[in-house]
Amino acid sequence: MATATQRLEQALNRKMIFGPGRIVTRVALLNTGSFAQMMTADLPTEKSFFIRIDANRKIFVHVLLALLVGFALPCDKAFPQASDSDQPWANVSGRILLEGKVPEIPLEKIDGHKDRSICLVDGKIPTDDSLVVDETGGLRDVFVILTPLDSETKIPVHPSYHKAANTTLELDNRNCRFVPHAMAVMTGQSILLKNSDAVGHNCKIASFNNEHNVNLPAGGEAEIKLELADRIPANVACDIHPWMDALILAKDHPYVAITSVDGSFQLKNVPMGKWKLQFWHQRFGYLRKLSVPGVKVDRKGRIDLDLADAQAMELGSMKLPVSAIK
Q: CA-CA distances (angstroms) from residue 177 to 120, 225, 280?
């Protein structure tokens, strides 16, 4: 039989509601009818509270202050409060172009692999998708990330994103490629890992803050979440097919754009104010050599973004020398 402490740990693993300085919830324990009840506890300065079990036993639980701002029940994701009436918004757009002779894109190394026939695309060996450039020089899959000026500032989020935060995104395994190759998610947002191929895959996701390794049989699927924000995108790999790769960036806000096939991007409903805009690509890292007309780019690929009165900011065509490739 589980001890009282073990039962308590089981109960605490369930979702709870934490508000500023207050904890309110009731948790049922998984045993012979014992239960723990967390009574309302006002914690303006304290870091701990008592839980009473069976009305005659006290267990002292130390609560990290980090918890007091984090957990929520499975409901709409909580964002810094903002509304259309008290917060102006703007759209930010632009286009990123490679300048110079683009190197020849190699084919994926699938020859000789036992699953070669499954991994062909329209009967052909596909090219490496870590560098995709259109005929005009547009660079696909650049991550364009809104960041605050300091770590203390939270970015207000437009109400239109609240519903999107609770939708499920998909990452498919198709013809031995991850589709899409690059994606952005909000922390805690559901990601459905799919396998549309007739062979097995695994999705190994590794970053500084998030790690998953999910086996997917033919036609299988699994759901995961990235709970913590990352500084740069996480790598996604398949150990069975070593040429497969993708990128996922988890942030605690929705203001991440990924350039399309022509190099264009748009961030919609960005809050007014002073921010940083950061550019990152798989083959270039931080785009520190990006040329933005009239704007300085720092060593972390960031520019200053001052949204004052305009409802739209067009950054225009920004050029990146091919020589910056890694």
A: 10, 21, 21
Contact 97, 136 (CB under 8 A): yes
Q: How far apart are CA 172 and CA 151, in angstroms?
A: 34
Helix, strand, or coil (residue 162):
helix
pLDDT per residue over 24-78, tens digit each? 333 333 333 333 333 333 333 333 333 333 333 333 333 333 333 343 334 455 5
How far, in Å, CA of 287 to CA of 256, rounded?
15
Whether the CB-CB separation of 247 and 282 falls below 8 Å is answered with: yes
At 114-159, the pLDDT tens digits run: 999 999 999 999 999 999 999 999 999 999 999 999 989 999 999 9
Give me the residue label for tokens 């759209």: 91
| CATH pick for 89-324 out of 3.40.50.300, 3.10.450.350, 2.60.40.420, 3.20.70.20 | 2.60.40.420
The two structure tokens encoding residue 95: 């286009």
pTM over 0.70: yes
Sequence-ordered alpha helix ranges (H) in the chain:
4-12, 116-119, 160-164
Question: What is the CA 9 to chain-centroid distance, rounded?
Answer: 29
Residue 15, amino acid: K
Pairing of strands 48-53, 57-62: antiparallel
Domains of the chain, by residue range, sit at 4-69, 89-324
